[in-house]
């Protein structure tokens, strides 16, 4: 029985960004049930043999065209007018993802997530460039130098490796991945099923609603 919805994410995934932007609407209905869990997409791909859609479907133009159409429909449906394709895609997100682990330690996790996603998929910044990365954090009011320094701590690096392996061990192969209890869902287009599964599991309780209060 689920008391939270686990959301495995990497800033390099536009579909994870789009999921992030509609999660507040779901939480208006369910309460603050989402737990954000970083997982380095490059590490997941290496461990599972998976590839990004841009690479996997590069030789299938009609498939890529349909992927773009589905993104356009999702953006329109949810009014996500700030979304922009990043002109530097694919961006190496290793520094961004180490940074989010550091942000968790420093108590600025939620603000960092917002800043990272805005920089990647609204401002279209090249976030694997060190100075661009530092400036984006500073512009968002985050302690950029402290975050960068802490992200180089061996314990922070090891924490990201462990978090990534956790997703792989649970059967995950990409981002966004959601877990409701032991039930796994992949992709932004499964968010309705994620919500329905959470409600279904909560309805097995003898009385009342779940009040999970999960952290981001």
Short description:
55% of the residues lie in helices and 8% in strands. By secondary structure, it is an alpha+beta fold.
Structural overview:
The chain is of the alpha+beta class. The chain has a single domain (5-202), classed as Glutaredoxin (3-Layer(aba) Sandwich), CATH 3.40.30.10. 55% of the residues lie in helices and 8% in strands. It has 10 helices and 4 strands; from the N terminus they run βαβααααααααββα. It has helices at 14-30, 41-48, 53-56, 61-78, 94-106, 109-121, 130-139, 144-151, 154-169, 191-202, and strands at 5-9, 34-38, 177-180, 183-186. The protein has a 4-stranded mixed β-sheet with strand order 2-1-3-4. A hairpin with a 2-residue loop joins strand 3 and strand 4 (183-186). It is globular, with a radius of gyration of 17 Å. Residues 206-216 have low confidence and may be disordered.
Which CATH class?
Alpha Beta
The CATH superfamily appears as: Glutaredoxin
Helix content: 55-70%
Assess the beta-strand content as a share of residues: 5-15%
Q: Count every beta strand, where a strand is a DSSP E run of 2 or more residues.
A: 4
Domain count: the total is: 1
The helix tally amounts to: 10
């Amino acid at each position: 029985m689920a008391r939270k919805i686990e959301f495995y994410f990497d800033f390099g995934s536009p579909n994870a960004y789009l999921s992030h932007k509609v999660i507040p609407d779901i939480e208006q209905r369910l309460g603050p049930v989402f737990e954000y869990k970083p997982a380095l997409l490059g590490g997941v791909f290496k461990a599972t043999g998976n590839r990004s859609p841009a690479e996997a479907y590069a030789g299938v133009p009609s498939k890529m065209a349909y992927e773009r159409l589905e993104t356009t429909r999702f953006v329109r449906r949810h009014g996500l007018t700030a979304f922009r394709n990043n002109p530097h895609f694919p961006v190496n997100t290793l520094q961004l993802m180490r940074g989010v682990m550091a942000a968790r330690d420093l108590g600025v996790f939620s603000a960092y997530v917002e800043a990272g996603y805005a920089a990647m998929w609204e401002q279209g910044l090249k976030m694997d460039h060190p100075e661009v990365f530092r400036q984006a954090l500073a512009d968002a009011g985050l302690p950029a130098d402290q975050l960068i320094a802490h992200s180089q701590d061996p314990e922070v690096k090891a924490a990201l490796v462990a978090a990534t392996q956790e997703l792989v061990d649970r059967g995950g192969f990409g981002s966004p991945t959601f877990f409701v209890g032991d039930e796994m869902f992949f992709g932004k287009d499964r968010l309705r099923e994620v919500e329905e599964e959470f409600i279904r599991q909560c309805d097995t309780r003898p009385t009342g609603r779940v009040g999970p209060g999960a952290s981001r």
